[in-house]
Amino acid sequence: MAPEVRTVMNMKPYREALALPGLRSLLLVSVLARIPLTAAGVVLTFHVVLDLGRGYGAAGLVGAASTVGAALGSPLLGRLVDRRGLRPVLALTTVAEGVFWFSAPTLSYPVLLPAAFLAGLLALPVFSVVRQSVAALVPAERRRPAYALDSMSVELSFMVGPALAVALATAVSPRTTLWAVGAGMVAAGVGFWLLDPPIRSAGEPVGPQRRVPRREWLTPRLLAVLAVSLAATLVLGGTDVAVVAVLRASGEVGWTGVVLAMWAVASLVGGFAYGAVSRSFSPLVLVAALSLCTIPVGLGGAHWWLLCLTLVPAGALCAPSIAATSDAVSRLAPAGVRGEAMGLHGSAVTVGIAVGAPLAGAVIDASLPLWGFVVTGAIGALVTLAVLPVELRHRRSAPPTDAPAPDLTPAPASL
Description:
The chain is mainly alpha-helical. It has 16 helices and no strands. It is globular, with a radius of gyration of 21 Å.
């Protein structure tokens, strides 16, 4: 009887969050909208290599151009959302996505490079908009399960999107897959435009507001959260490459899909547990734990099943780490600049992935595959250690307040 009671109690945070008006439809649309976004990188790689006859290095440059554009554009689009509202930004980015993806098959490689940068600069801001809308729809005390659901939906999208892209590109053609992704992007933009999720809560002012200077909200604490967000995805990007390298070195590269699927399942389970527990966890602690658990993963490289087992602890911390950083940004940023703050969070996540993968690749090329896990995990841990004094200094100097502040350092255990 007791286990049943505990299960019911663990579901309560999710039931309460999903009962809030608008959250279910937001999460459902976000899962479908993110699928073409997660497929974009794979599709561009296939197109450059197979249709244009270029190498993987050339394909990597196109991906890098798109990533740089997205990193620069995310906070700019978020700021535009804060000032002009959501629908004008969705209209602009949806048109830009349609133009790029439907014209991409006709572009030569020298033209595709700057076009990919511009497409990244005006990319549909689904990730940051969803997180901004979660903050508007959900009271602060219920955001943890809501952001956990958001992180789990991202994981599902990454499990489906690239696999669908590979299947379509190999079964039909990369050119057709480019158009399919473009259609998905346009459908996602139209879906969000019709849904028009709120970007301010009921108690927050709407319409043009006084411009809040960045020095008032881009505080050392917020910068610390952005830094650990980058560190988390740097570790994840490095892990992705190191898994392939370790399996290839052991002659078991055919099991790559199974190992990565196990990693994703562990992340889903960890994300669910994070949203169901009754206490808050610090993003600094979660990212530090993710980094430390990643360092020894390469020791399981002798067998694919052993690698699966060693990935489970780190995998279980993936979704919670991203959810915790999103939650912290939503609490630290004032409502009037939340779009720009979430855009900066999106940029940090994007840059982390973009840096982690080639960094792990360079380390692996210069040494052994297991060092890809060690180096990226160690860098993640060092970043969390470097920003820890910022939060400790805040705790010493902050006056007592009745309003709960986001926990960025470990809270004492309680029963």
